[in-house]
Amino acid sequence: MESGRIALTVEDGVAHVELARPDKMNAMDGAMFGAIGEMFRTLGTDGKVRAILLSGQGKHFTAGIDLHYAASQFTPSEDHARAGEARLRHIRWLQDCFTALEEARAPVIAAIHGGCVGAGVDLATACDIRICSADAYFQVAEVDVAITADLGTLQRLIHLLPDGLVRELVFTGRRMDAEEAASTGLVNRIAADRDAAIAAGLEMARAIAAKSPVAVTGAKLSLNYSRGRTVAEGLGHVALWNASALAAPDLMAAVQARLAKQDAHFAPLED
């Protein structure tokens, strides 16, 4: 499946989404933002999809927002109130396109190679898991074009890296290479190159897809809910989930499979 900005393949419950604008280093214009949001909202409600891999075609994961597109969206206006209201709605739309990854029922794994710049960091931090190639680098580059990052980096990166390091990256716009990203916990592992990162991501996605989708989805919901809340609130949330989820046949299927030393098979979620 092609949208002109992203490509999709689905096999055995694993969806592979590719940023597909390699001639522009996968720079994100309005069409790409819209395609990302629509794709992940669709996959996120598809009960047959159990894990999602996100990667980029070409030399880089993404160069971030297309600067020509950005310039066309934020032109000066004499009517500051109406222009400001329009900018607010547009920024919220852009945010929602990336929040769709976080809200997808299936876990999202990013396989990152080359540059992951600006809005690319916003996109990567909305994923559940990140794998990168040895040549990958991350750059919160908005400060270099006089923008405050506003699509999720400031809100999500702070849960992945130490506060002081986040502030350094945001205020200076310096590059973080793959080794530093791995040592600080931004990425789970480093692969040799783009192909190896995608292969590692697919292997992980298949492992997730083999598990109970009820259990995996519940875990993602609980992890997302618990971020920024007290332990007691998180415990209450997961207790309510399991009060209904443990009635699913998945528990008995998993136990019987383990006792028989066989692989368990689980029905898809409902759309």
From TrEMBL:
Keyword field: Fatty acid metabolism, Isomerase, Lipid metabolism
Pathway entry: Lipid metabolism; fatty acid beta-oxidation
GO terms for biological process, alphabetical: fatty acid beta-oxidation
Xref: InterPro entries: ClpP/crotonase-like_dom_sf, Ech1-like, Enoyl-CoA_hyd/isom_CS, Enoyl-CoA_hydra/iso, Enoyl-CoA_hydra_C
Domain of life: Bacteria
Alphabetical list of Pfam families matching this protein: ECH_1
Gene Ontology MF terms in the entry: isomerase activity
Family annotation (PANTHER family): ENOYL-COA HYDRATASE (PTHR43149)
Family in the record: Belongs to the enoyl-CoA hydratase/isomerase family.
Protein name per Swiss-Prot or TrEMBL: Delta(3,5)-Delta(2,4)-dienoyl-CoA isomerase
Native organism: Allosphingosinicella indica
